[in-house]
Amino acid sequence: PVSGSYKFYLAADDQAEVYLETKPGNLESICSVKRYTGFREFFRDEGQVSKPIDLEKGKTYYMEVYHLNGRGENYFSVGVEIPSVYIEKYSSLPEVQRISWESKPRREIISFRVWGENLSGTFKVQAREVDSKGQVLFDRESQEIKYNATSKDFSYWLGTIFWRGDHEVERKPLDKNGQVQSSEQGAAGYEWIVTYNYIRPGTGTSLPGILIGGLKGSVKQSVQLVRAATKPISGVFQVSYKGRSSKDLSLSLIHI
C-alpha cells in the first residue's frame, strides 16, 4: 500500500468476518456481517465498515476472510477505501441511487344516522359490492344493531359484513331534527361516523345502507359519503440512463 488511512467494507450472504494483521502476530477483526446483505450492499448494518486503519508504504499485511453460508446462493465482497486522489480512480464501492415515491392517501368517511321520536329497537347495515358492469358481487347484512349502539358495538357489527374490519367509529348524539347536539341527554338518535383505513369493497360503486325493519317510533335514517377516498399509487415505471431504458418496473402501494 501507499502510506495513509484505509477503510475496509464487507458484504456477504450469509455471514462473514475480515481479519487484518497490522502488527506481527496480532490478527484483529476489523469488520463483519452478522446477517446476509445484498450483493455489495456495504452500508446496511453497523459493523460492515471498519474504523480508519493506518498502513505504511512498502509493508506487507496479512488478511483473512471467514465466510459462512447456510443454504442457497452465497457470496462475499470486500471493498477498500484508499487514501488521497486514488480513491476517485480505484474506489471499489458501487454507486447507490434511491428512487422513492410518497403517497398520502385520503381515507373514506361515511356517516350513518338514525333518529326520530320515541326511537327504540334495532336495525341492520347492508353492504353491497358491485363491479364496473353493475353485477352484484356480494350482498351482506349485519346482525341486529341497537338504535343507541356504542362506537365499539357499531364497529364490531360493521366489521363482520365487510372483508376487513379495519376502520374507526365515532358516535354523536342527534336531536329530533337529525342534527348533532352537544349532550347525550334527551338524544333522539345517533350518528356513527366511520373512517376506513383501507379501500372499502364497493368503494366508488355503492354506499352501505340501513335496514330499519327492527326500529320503532317515528324513524328517519340516512347514509352519506362525507369524504371520498383516494386510490393508492399503482402501475409501472421505467428508469432511463444515457439513452437506455429499463423494462417496466411495477409499483404498488397499499393504504395503511
In short:
By secondary structure, the chain is mostly beta strands. The protein has helices spanning about 85-90, 150-160; strands at about 5-15, 15-25, 25-35, 55, 60-70, 75-80, 110-115, 120-130, 135-140, 145, 165-175, 190-195, 210, 215, 220-225, 235, 240, 245, 250. Helices cover about 5% and strands about 45% of the residues.
Q: What does the secondary structure layout of this molecule look like, with pairings?
A:
Layout: E1 4-13, E2 15-23, E3 26-33, E4 53-55, E5 62-68, E6 75-81, H1 86-90, E7 109-115, E8 120-130, E9 136-141, E10 145-146, H2 151-159, E11 167-174, E12 189-196, E13 209-211, E14 215-216, E15 220-227, E16 234-237, E17 240-241, E18 244-245, E19 249-252
Antiparallel strand pairs: 1-4, 1-6, 2-3, 2-5, 7-12, 7-15, 8-9, 8-10, 8-13, 8-14, 11-12, 16-19, 17-18
Can you put this structure into words, describing what you see?
Helix content is 5%, strand content 43%. It is built from 2 helices and 19 strands. The strands form 6 sheets. Strands 8, 9, 10, 13 and 14 form a 5-stranded antiparallel β-sheet that branches. A 4-stranded antiparallel β-sheet has the order 11-12-7-15, covered by helices on one side. A 3-stranded antiparallel β-sheet has the order 4-1-6, with no helix packed on it.
